């Protein structure tokens, strides 16, 4: 498995890369988004959702844990597990019902759901790089490999 990377200079570039992810995501997938507070995880999700045709606001589901979006291209779930106290709380949410072959799941702070969440097809790490951001990604499944190959 080869780790791939890109440096993005600003918010517009982050949104554009999210749109690129959307274009590459022709089938459902689970994508983990890693990074400290303020690194742009939700901005990246906004780009993915715009790429799926969503035209409204994209807010971080920090308090609701998940925000579902029905788009012309299919269902997208945006998870933010930052405030999750215990991974078992996901069982009460009915977490397993969200993951199917057709849906795209974007999961911020996935480490908070360790042991409950499925294996990510693709994992993206976002770090500060000067005034911009450096994104590195790696795949864990064949579906994730196909998605990663399209991002090059």
Features:
152 residues; alpha/beta; Rossmann fold; 7-stranded mixed beta sheet; 4 helices; 7 strands; 26% helix
Number of helices: 4
Q: The biggest beta sheet, please?
A: 7 strands, mixed
Helix and strand sequence = EHEHEEHEEEH
The number of distinct structural domains comes to 1
**Rounded average pLDDT:** 92
Distance between the termini: 14 Å
Please report which band the strand proportion falls in: under 5%, 5-15%, 15-25%, 25-35%, 35-45% or over 45%. 25-35%
Name given to the CATH homologous superfamily: P-loop containing nucleotide triphosphate hydrolases
Q: Outline the low-pLDDT stretches.
A: none
Note the overall shape. globular
CATH architecture: 3-Layer(aba) Sandwich
Count of strand segments: 7
Strand order of the largest sheet: 1-7-6-2-5-4-3
CATH topology: Rossmann fold
Give me the secondary-structure category. Answer: alpha/beta
What would CATH call the class?
A: Alpha Beta
Radius of gyration: 14 Å
Helix content: 25-40%
Structure explained in plain terms:
It is a single chain. This protein is an alpha/beta fold and 152 residues long. It has a single domain (4-151), classed as P-loop containing nucleotide triphosphate hydrolases (Rossmann fold). 26% of the residues lie in helices and 30% in strands. It contains four helices and seven strands; from the N terminus they run E-H-E-H-E-E-H-E-E-E-H. A seven-stranded mixed beta sheet has the order 1-7-6-2-5-4-3. A hairpin with a 2-residue loop joins strand 6 (122-129) and strand 7. Helix 1 (11-24) crosses helix 2. The longest helix has 14 residues, at 11-24. The model has no long low-confidence stretch (mean pLDDT 92).
